[in-house]
Amino acid sequence: MVNKKYLIVNADDFGLSYDVNRGIIKAYENGIVTSTSLMVRWQNAEDAAVYGREHPDFDIGIHFDFGEWAYRDEDWVAIYEVVSTKDVTAVRDEVFQQLDTFRSLMGKDPTHIDSHQHVHLNDSLIPIFANIAKELGVPLRRYNSEIQYFGGFYGQTDEGLPYPDGISVDNMIHILESLPAGITELACHPSDGIDLDTMYRNERMQELKVLCDPRIRATIGALGIKLCSFTGIKRYVRG
């Protein structure tokens, strides 16, 4: 594996809406997406799970959802909140409830773990997720030492301002050219429409275009990068 480059392209928010589901599926079937993370609380989670059960080679992890926050007037305000992220007990209870829902929907454990807006990285909460990841034997985003994480394919600044250059073909090519040796997870958020109320909406359609742009796959081939999933990477490493 020395000097080889492996890329997992993970689409977050599977199940969030019909258009998001359709965008992720298109990016998997016609683009470079190799895995996704399911939000089990949303009304389109069942449709997402049906596709996942029908396509067992498509890695599906869990995207734990405790709320969404937007940066407004120099402060982060809640768009919605499932439980208070300051209440460790409430978060733990919600984690197990969402994990049970995932298992009910998919009939199996998730292939990887992450969370909406990276809530799991909170210092007081990360032990909860780290323990579950250890029990399941699956990677936890930005916690597994063997998998580097890159979130720079994104169409907004840290303050939520538009940043179209972040989701351009040129930026994706730059990301690929700068990819380090080893395993990297690249997060993305494609959608085939805007049927949702979220701080990150219109940008999702542009992401889908880039993820399916033939220039991106050509660049991956020219650079000798191996596209893989969280499950598939085991075959490469062991091989």
In short:
With 239 residues, this protein is an alpha/beta fold.
User: What's the helix count?
Assistant: 8
**Structural shape:** globular
CATH architecture: Alpha-Beta Barrel
- Helical amount: 25-40%
Describe, in plain words, how this protein is organized in 3D.
The chain has 239 residues and is of the alpha/beta class. The protein has one domain (5-238): Glycoside hydrolase/deacetylase (TIM Barrel, Alpha-Beta Barrel), CATH 3.20.20.370. The protein contains 8 helices and 9 strands. The strands form 2 sheets. Strands 1, 2, 3, 6, 7, 8 and 9 form a 7-stranded parallel sheet that branches. A two-stranded antiparallel sheet has the order 4-5. Helix 1 links the parallel strand 1 (5-14) and strand 2. Helix 1 packs parallel to helix 6. It is globular.
